[in-house]
């Protein structure tokens, strides 16, 4: 779990002694890394994330809550005060090289010849 996050938000660890397994437990579901990717690309509001990913609203709500509870995102008030915005914490920013590496791997191995 991100340092500083509270244990009450910890998932049940698949393999408590393995850092890879713990990381997958935190961000390895279908949507979490895409939310983090979009936060790195400037998404801040619920609407930003929803439009970029197409994720169902209830699932997005769940992922934003979990990523905030795990200390990867922080929730802040928008300047208008009417809604919340999400920003990456230092722990979330530390995932940048992971996202870049996943992208590079995907470019080399996840497309058939002739696909974008």
UniProtKB/TrEMBL annotation:
InterPro entries per record: ArsR-like_HTH, HTH_HxlR, WH-like_DNA-bd_sf, WH_DNA-bd_sf
PROSITE patterns per record: HTH_HXLR
Protein name: Transcriptional regulator
Domain of life: Bacteria
CDD domains membership: HTH_ARSR (cd00090)
Pfam family, one: HxlR
Residue span, HTH hxlR-type domain: 18-114
GO MF terms, alphabetically ordered: DNA binding
SUPFAM superfamilies in UniProt: Winged helix' DNA-binding domain
Keywords, ordered alphabetically: DNA-binding, Transcription, Transcription regulation
